[in-house]
Structures are given as structure tokens and as C-alpha cells.
Design brief:
The chain has 255 residues and is α/β, with parallel strands linked by helices. It has a single domain (2-246), classed as 4-Layer Sandwich (Metallo-beta-lactamase, Chain A). It contains 7 helices and 14 strands. A 7-stranded mixed beta sheet has the order 6-5-4-3-2-1-14. It has a 7-stranded mixed beta sheet with strand order 7-8-9-10-11-12-13. α4 (91-101) links the parallel β5 (85-89) and β6. α6 packs across α7 (220-231).
Length: 255
């Protein structure tokens, strides 16, 4: 299983960094997690948009779904996928997309599979589980596994017992950490900082975490160092656009 970072900025693009988007690939199957603004240009470096098999959109904030519009038009006019791309999202996100493209349905490019709560499903080589997060609008985290190993993507969230349960013992936690320690913010806890993310990592027994969705001008390297000081033995990685990481999946025994 390979994870490729296509966008890693939070809330809005940063210098040389698109908004949230992550490609999970295995055995020729391409599964896109979010499609934030600016990320489609990086997708071309990993695979053609028409070669994406499924797309999961965590919620309806534009920094997580805006480039669905570009993917739609590319696949409609430039390169048709062999079959409609499975779009896993809430109906609210699908309605936002329909409004942008001025259509009554998403075919022939996308085929909607509605995600509206805790759910589980199989996509190609992946077994996926979703959970509701703590955010300002309905938002879903997702765990993607193959042969019992994989990653958990928190999407946008503050402290959440359902995300903690979803992430338990995951091989890689791809976690939003929007703020640095000491950031002045008076609203509800809708995003993580290193302190709240550290609590999640420790309680969920996470051994490797990759921070993403750091809002510029917060320094993601500083945020990572702050997190490392709080999590002990957990390895902390930093998401940067276009990098890839492999998640080892054991081959089944030969009978």
C-alpha cells in the first residue's frame, strides 16, 4: 500500500502546497481521499484523474472537495474513465458538486455511494471503515486497510472518541494538526493542535503519525517538533506535497 500526498495545507493553500488530498494505491487500484483546491495538478504526477477508481470526500468545506469540479470536467471532456468513479461522500457534498457543474446527476463521471455515518465497505483491495468526527459540519474520518493493516485519516476534527476508536492500533495515523501550541483561537474545538493530537495518539496506541492540514503561516516543522515532545516513542512524519510513503502489507501465506 502506498500513500502519496497531493495536498497538505489546511483551510487554504499555502506556499507550494495545495489543500488536503491523499492518494492510496495498491495492486493498480487508486483511491483518493479528499480533493482540496489545487491538488488536482499534483494528482497528474501520480496517475491520470481518469485512472482513479474511487474518491472519498470527508466533508463539504472547499479545501477538501473543490477539485472534484476539475476532475469531473477532465474526465468528461479529455479522458473518460473505463467506468464511473465511485464517489463516497455525503449527499450534501454531491449537491454542492451538482450545483457547480449545473447537472441533475453525476454520470457518466461519478457514481455516488452516500456516506452519512459510521459505515464499512470494500473497495478493490481495501476494507474501509468510517466514523463521524467533531467538526462544524458533518465530517467523516476513514480507516483504509488491506489484510488487516493500513492507515487512518482523521479528516478535520477536534477531540473525538469516535475518531480515537477508529484509529486504535492503526499502522499510520494521517492526522490533521491545524494549529501550533499556543495558537490563539476562541471558537469551539474543531481542529487539533499538538496537545490534543498527542492525547489521541497515546490513547489509540499509534506508533507512527503523519501530520497534515497545518494552516499557514503555522510552521509544520515546528508543529511536528511540538508533537514529538509530547508523544514519546511515536514516530512523527510531516506531510509535504508529492511525497510518498509505503505501508507494508504482509503477503498471505502460500498454501
Amino acid at each position: 500500500m502506498k500513500l502519496t500526498i497531493l495536498g497538505s495545507s489546511g483551510s487554504y493553500p499555502g506556499p507550494q502546497s495545495a489543500c488536503s488530498s491523499y492518494l492510496v494505491s495498491q495492486d493498480g487500484y487508486n483511491f483518493l481521499l479528499d480533493a482540496g483546491n489545487g491538488s488536482m495538478s499534483n494528482l497528474f504526477g501520480a496517475c491520470s484523474p481518469a485512472k482513479v477508481d474511487a474518491i472519498f470526500i470527508s466533508h463539504g468545506h472547499s479545501d477538501h472537495w473543490a477539485d472534484l469540479v476539475g476532475i469531473y470536467y477532465y474526465c468528461l471532456f479529455a479522458e473518460r474513465p473505463l467506468k464511473p468513479i465511485t464517489l463516497l461522500s455525503s449527499k450534501a457534498v454531491a449537491d454542492l458538486l451538482l450545483e457547480q457543474i449545473g447537472k441533475e446527476n453525476l454520470l457518466p463521471v461519478f457514481e455516488l455511494k452516500a456516506v452519512d455515518g459510521a459505515d464499512s465497505f470494500t473497495l478493490g483491495p481495501f476494507y474501509c471503515t468510517t466514523a463521524r468526527t467533531s467538526h462544524s459540519i458533518p465530517t467523516f474520518a476513514i480507516r483504509v486497510e488491506s489484510q488487516g493493516k493500513g492507515l487512518t485519516y482523521t479528516a478535520d476534527t477536534g477531540e473525538s472518541s469516535s475518531v480515537e476508536e477508529l484509529a486504535m492500533d492503526t499502522e499510520l495515523l494521517l492526522a490533521e494538526c491545524t494549529w501550533r501550541l499556543g495558537h490563539s483561537y476562541s471558537g469551539p474545538p474543531l481542529h487539533h493542535d499538538p496537545a490534543t493530537l498527542a492525547a489521541l495518539i497515546i490513547r489509540a496506541n499509534v506508533k507512527k503519525a503523519m501530520i497534515t492540514h497545518v494552516a499557514y503561516p503555522n510552521d509544520r516543522l515546528e508543529v511536528a517538533d511540538q508533537l514529538r515532545s509530547l508523544v514519546g516513542q511515536c514516530e512523527v512524519l510531516v506531510a509535504q506535497d508529492t511525497i510518498s510513503i509505503s505501508i507494508d502489507i504482509e503477503a498471505p501465506p502460500v498454501p
